[in-house]
Amino acid sequence: MTTIAVLGNGRVGGNLAKALTGAGHEVTVADRAPGAVANAARTAQIVINATPGAGSLDLLVAHREELHGKILVDVSNATFDGPDGLPADLIYPGSSLAEQLQQALPETHVVKTLNTMLFPVMTAPATLSQAPDVFLSGEDAQAKQTVRELLVDLGWHEEWIVDLGGIQTARATEAAILFVPHVIRASGFAPFSISIAR
Asked: Average pLDDT in the 117-133 region?
């Protein structure tokens, strides 16, 4: 059993918290109440950032002390939204939220994953009509192995998990968010994942 703090209690955070609790982990969900993030991060072994990407960097850097030495799983994408509320552009072009977090929090092991799909797929990948991929980006091999084990707990088969390499590779998966609004407009809000056909 791992102690996990999920930062953000929206659709993404709530979905992950429920699934990880069901897998036997001890999960705390931090909302925006004063002190909630600090308390949750302080007591957890793994912290999952499921907060809106536009404000994630400022929020997490403010909790540098609580995140020291922890694994920070970043599932958010930092985007400017268009008039319809869907992602329209990247906040960190030529970089990524994960890279910005790792640079600002050098004593924290940032791992980017689960950011190339609609949120229902994160915890139910086998419900898609074909095998999806989930990607890992990060500098610390042990941190990525720990996150890989969490993904398996969420229903991801080992062969569906693709380690892309260092944290810089997160800029590729984060840029994939720009596909999402076009797919939704073309096909509706049905669960999908961006994957590699082989």
From this structure: 96
Domains of the chain are: 3-187 (3.40.50.720)
d(CA 63, CA 66): 5
Higher pLDDT pick, 189 / 45: 45
Strands 134-138 and 161-165: parallel
Report whether 64 contacts 106 (CB < 8 A): no
The tokens describing 142, both together, are 């042990």
Tokens 């996990």 found at: 4
Is residue 110 within 8 A of residue 103, CB to CB? The reply is: no
Record the tokens describing residue 32, joined without a space: 């925006």
CA distance 193 to 121: 7
| Three-state SS at 161 | strand
Beta strands 79-81 and 87-90: pairing type? antiparallel
Whether the predicted pLDDT of 32 surpasses 80 = no
71 CB neighbour count, 10 Å cutoff: 24
